[in-house]
Design a protein that fits this description.
Helix content is 53%, strand content 17%. The protein is α/β, with parallel strands linked by helices. The protein is globular.
């Protein structure tokens, strides 16, 4: 079972996924868990509720809390050391379910959080840029962002209340990926996680 959790959360298009890909270069001993990738894997592997998961993903709506929390609990049980969870929790209830289900969570097993707060139009434009540049893709991006906004205040409040330390990475205007990765690495150092050579990660 893990010794500590680091939650990395933010809206789709906030840049957290890209920043984490760079950070992994300097953190070979950390375990990384991507909520989006795990949901896709669950569908591919024939999860008992794979049709429900797939339907939610296609409609850009949130997968039910119990499905998501169960997948994370399995990861917490099967990993050791520090586990970095990307994209979880997406609702306050998901966070509380993990907190209550894992013995020692928040005490013997500390919780840390990095919250990416990025301007809405930046997130939406990035999401649109990943796919077709048409009205349907734009509407889908708005739906995804609105789903995030619906729960963000409570998720943010939960993480800042239950974690031993939290860091907010703000992007009111476009920032370089290098600057965000550097701030993310500094956050991990602040949490006591030693990276091998984090200044070199952004090169």
């Amino acid at each position: 079972m893990v010794d500590a959790l680091i939650h990395v959360v933010g809206a789709p298009g906030s840049g957290k996924d890209t920043a984490l890909r760079y950070l992994r270069r300097g953190a070979p001993r950390l375990n990384f868990f991507s909520m989006s990738a795990e949901l896709e894997r669950a569908v591919a592997n024939g999860h008992p509720r794979s049709e429900e998961i797939s339907d939610c993903m296609q409609k850009s709506t949130l997968v039910p809390d119990d499905i998501v929390s169960d997948l994370v609990i399995q990861a917490v049980d099967n990993q050791h050391g520090v586990l970095v969870i990307n994209g979880f929790p997406r609702t306050r209830l998901q966070g509380l379910q993990i907190y209550n289900a894992v013995p020692g969570m928040g005490t013997q097993k500390p919780i840390f959080a990095v919250l990416f707060e990025t301007r809405p139009d930046i997130c939406i434009n990035r999401m649109v840029g990943r796919g077709r540049a048409d009205s349907a893709n734009f509407e889908s991006a708005k739906v995804r962002f609105n789903q995030h906004t619906l729960h963000w205040a409570r998720v943010s409040a939960y993480l800042q209340a239950y974690s031993q330390a939290s860091v907010i990475i703000v992007e009111h205007n476009e920032r370089t990926i290098e600057s965000k990765v550097e701030e993310l690495c500094a956050a991990f150092e602040f949490f006591g996680v030693r990276l091998s050579d984090w200044p070199a990660i952004v090169v």
